[in-house]
Amino acid sequence: MGQGQSSAQWHSQIRNASTTQIINGFDPTTPSETSYQLRWITDQYLKKKKKKLTAEDRDTKLLQLIQQHDDEQAAIIACAHAMSPEAVRKLLAAGLRISPGMQFNVERYLRAIQAAYQVNPKAVTDLEAQWAAALLPLVADKDHDAGRHIETCLSLPEKGIAPDLLRGSMVQGILRSAFAKFAARLEELTNECQWAQAYASASWLSIYATQEAAGLPGASDTVGKLNMMFKDWLMWARWRPNVFRI
User: What is the DSSP letter of 54?
Assistant: First the structure.
């Protein structure tokens, strides 16, 4: 089988083995049966090479397969385990340079980080994977109430995140957009007199308005973000309705 035929067969097998439902729903900390199958296809592809590949050659070849495949996340899950951590990280960083700003691309990028972490955890740190997982629901726009996801993001430290994968400007942009949606959601609930739901959505803010907040790790940074991105946060944090009457 020629080189072109071998690559075409790989692409076909990966398409057949992967489904959008399974790939988009995987837990990045728990490899699924599908991810094992995708990696097996790549392992078989490499074994069929007549010439023994150097580590650099293997990185180059697998990078080409990923870039040519129509489902980037599936391709990364299939190939990243057989690549050097440096090559995987360079691949991810290149994706960030190519597609800054657009929400759909940011979602794909965060999923790519999760995929790489699943199969090659040396390429992505635990903290970077946690940030990708926390930011993803905010850009996927599938959750009507962004508050709990914002809370998760604010609880994560930013120190230790290399800017080649998660730019500060990208993270801040996602959080600003999420806060705007969160504020709009709270206003919508109050306009509809859904006080109980509004209180449940905003109650997590209260801890940052108390003296106890001073003792929380990173609390001052969190308050700074709240002041900058959600101007009415203190009003919601201090709101104490009679929960038995709302």
Answer: P
Burial class (CB in 10 A: 0-12, 13-18, 19+), 226: buried
187 Cβ contact list (under 8 Å, min separation 6): none
- Are 173 and 99 part of one and the same domain? no
141 and 237 inside one domain:
yes
- What are the pLDDT digits (tens) for 142-157? 656 789 899 999 989 8
Cα 121 to Cα 125: distance, rounded to the nearest angstrom:
7
Domain holding 190, by residue range, is 125-246
Q: Is the pLDDT of residue 206 over 60?
A: yes
Query: Could you tell me the two tokens for 124?
Result: 């992505």
Give pTM, 2 decimals: 0.81
Residues 136 and 215 in one domain: yes
Q: How many CB atoms neighbour CB 136 within 10 A?
A: 20
Q: Say how many domains are in the chain.
A: 2
